[in-house]
Write a structure and sequence with these properties.
alpha/beta; Rossmann fold; five-stranded parallel beta sheet; about 45% helix
Length: about 350
């Protein structure tokens, strides 16, 4: 019988190693070193269960769990929080973020294994056939970002043995992603851009001024930005420096540690635009810097300069252009309905208040 697959998310390598050693005899185990890495791996790994640390850089466990719950394929997956935070308030917050189980650190490996075993015995969720075996995922993890993008878009890959030439050192086996499906973007497609800025006017102006030349989506905070970067797989990312909860610098650093986005061009926009600020952004991994006040023409020129570079590539996407537009329209409609619902509720409460105090 195939083994269940568990995704371990913890920024401490020693903890991941202990959990892996505990679970590996009975389960397939895949590791993620932070929340962004976990969110990026969901579609490829297709876990049956997630073990999630709380205290992690950039995205803590609560944020990571919310991202998982917002994912259309994995919103119902079971999540176990494993954390040093053990107060009643912490545990309540964990369940409020979407956890199914909560264990505290330090933990007994035998107890963790028993909890996981008992979960699968009692729940016995139907087994889902995986697109990639553990061995294939391990090989794919050693491949360049292009291979990961192709595998993600196509849902499969094949190993190809490369015959070495007599005059050259022996070549290593090369893993090539299978040809992308029709939904993947050819090189002639528009580059896809995600703009992350908490200034709604900046995002709106960017969307309106760039939509004829780029497939473009906007996000108003770092968490929404991470969700859209994972979902839309942009060819270029535009980040504001001053974002709520996490800075653009932190997100830039985290993206550069993530193999899938290590080569994705990043443009930083900021009102803090001294030579020192610009040098700092470039040192953290940004490819270009656009100062504020925001100038859409300057941003457009910067994006075109990136696209015209010899090494720029429009990567294959899991979501086609049509699916991208549909998803953006769906999200906008859901937001409008939410705002309308909140507005109606506020109006009803105001009317009730006025009635109750009409005689005063």
């Amino acid at each position: 019988m195939p083994k269940r697959r568990i995704l371990i998310v913890d920024d401490e390598a020693d903890i991941r190693a202990i959990i892996r050693a505990t679970l590996a005899p009975r389960y397939e185990v895949v590791e993620a070193h932070d929340g962004l890495d976990a969110a990026q791996k969901l579609d490829l790994v297709e876990p049956d269960f997630v073990i999630l640390d709380v205290m992690m850089p950039l995205m803590d466990g609560y944020d990571t769990c919310r991202v998982i719950r917002n994912h259309p394929r994995f919103r119902d997956i079971s999540v176990l929080f494993l954390s040093a935070l053990g107060s009643k308030e912490d545990i309540v917050k964990g369940y409020g973020a979407g956890a199914n189980l909560y264990l505290t650190k330090p933990f007994e490996p035998a107890r963790l294994l028993k909890v996981v075993d008992l979960f699968f015995e009692e729940k016995n969720p139907p087994f889902q056939q995986k697109r990639f075996s553990i061995e294939e995922l391990q090989k794919l993890d050693q491949m360049p970002p292009d291979a990961i993008s192709l595998a993600h878009a196509s849902g499969t890959f094949q190993a190809v043995e490369v015959e070495p030439k007599p005059s050259q050192p022996e070549a290593q086996p090369k893993l090539e992603a299978a040809p992308p499906p029709k939904s993947a973007h050819p090189q002639s497609a528009k580059p896809r851009v995600v703009v992350v800025d908490d200034d709604e006017d900046v995002v709106t102006i960017a969307l309106m001024s760039l939509r004829d030349e780029f497939e473009i989506a906007g996000a108003l905070d770092g968490m929404e930005g991470i969700e859209k970067i994972i979902l839309y797989e942009p060819d270029i990312i535009v980040l504001d420096v001053m974002l709520p909860k996490m800075s653009g610098y932190q997100l830039c650093q985290s993206l550069r540690r993530n193999k899938r986005f290590t080569q994705t061009p990043i443009v930083v926009i900021s009102a803090k635009s001294s030579p020192r600020d610009q040098e700092y952004a470039l040192r953290l991994g940004a490819n270009a810097f656009v100062p504020k006040p925001f100038d859409p023409d300057r941003l457009r020129a910067t994006l075109h300069a990136i696209v015209e570079q010899p090494g720029f590539v429009i990567h294959p996407k899991a979501l086609s252009s049509q699916q991208f537009e549909f998803e953006e329209n769906r999200r906008k409609k859901a937001l409008e309905e939410h705002v309308d619902k909140v507005t109606r509720k506020q109006e009803t409460e105001l009317e009730k208040f006025l009635r109750e105090h009409a005689d005063e």
